[in-house]
């Protein structure tokens, strides 16, 4: 997949507006005014206050959040956008287990108060856009309803269960004084940690592990708070509602929290990920100010329990002699797959078309344009899940489905989008890595160009 998005499709003609070449704040503001969107400019500047409120996908009002540039690159595996003070106290809705529609998506004439018809396209054209999503939904619903419980949930639950069963072997291998068994223990614990914190927490945030709402809440607390050291309310809200509801919308779900423009490309891509285990709990503690005190207390207890259990097992089962050696082992195992975790989070959205909040396309176009699939990889498929690697487009269209179901509907979704001449973005890991190293300044430091919808052909 090439980085030039003028290519478009027969449904949309896309024209990206190039970012300002000057870095001065005054020129950037003028550039933003000319573009007519609130989020243009360097990451970290607040959204323009004059932008009208627009509803979230479930009707909750929200203003485009401030572009953040901070240590929030350490967000937990599910997060690609952090909280905003204007969004405090709101939690993500529980999703239906057999209903494969995206959280909050409903067929209708409009997606939000800010939606406009690009180029003055007639209303019947927009109704056809809704019909595309409805038609695809019906095709996917047939597959889901004909699938067994094992396919819908059992496969992914088994992967998580196997990861738990590998924990004793990992801790016991660390007792060995020989290099090979010791390294095997580090590898085992590192893979298990990322399977629980990335795959488990991601599925739990979308309530994709079980059809029971009660158990969904239990698993969310376990995976997100105990294993990943984050509060459930902030994690599910910012990921499910903001990132999924406004994927690649400037000022909302544009993945800007993954940008650290003060770091050069090599430090960001290869050194900074090692700090993820340290920065994650710090970001989580800061976000606790935005939740009720009961939720904050619960999260603090779960965070302490998770860290202490890991530390205690290293001392009493693995036989580490000093606290510092145990803490160093915790850092190594928890950062084992931090590099692909950071890379995956930026590869699959940043560099793709970005849209202004008041001129976003309909959902099926938004997700087909702004999401990218990576090839299958055995290690990452196990640790992160198909929905974060090779089925990310399918996941953004139908986020309540489990990883295995996203893999099952992948041929249907890809064939349908290609048949309708809609983009279906795919690229290799190495290709995206090379792209980001070459265009780091443009993609990760400067403001992303806005993709203008010229019209429907």
Alpha-carbon distance between the two ends: 23 Å
Overall pLDDT confidence: 78
- What portion of the residues fall into strands of 2 or more residues? under 5%
Summarize the helix and strand pattern as letters. EHEEHHHHHHHHHHHEHHHEHHE
Tell me the strand order in the biggest sheet.
Answer: 1-6
The total count of strands amounts to 6
The structure class reads mainly alpha
Fraction of residues in helices? Answer: 40-55%
Please work out how many helical segments DSSP would assign. Answer: 17
Structure description:
- The chain is mostly helical and 457 residues long.
- Helix content is 51%, strand content 5%.
- Strands 1-6 form a two-stranded antiparallel ribbon. Strands 2-3 form a two-stranded antiparallel ribbon.
- 46% of the residues are buried.
Summarize the structure.
The chain is mostly helical. The chain has helices at 25-35, 123-145, 149-173, 179-205, 213-227, 232-243, 265-271, 276-287, 293-316, 323-334, 338-347, 363-370, 378-383, 392-397, 403-419, 429-438, 440-445, and strands at residues 12-17, 54-55, 61-62, 372-373, 425-426, 450-456.
Write out key terms for the chains shown.
457 residues, mainly alpha, two-stranded antiparallel sheet, globular
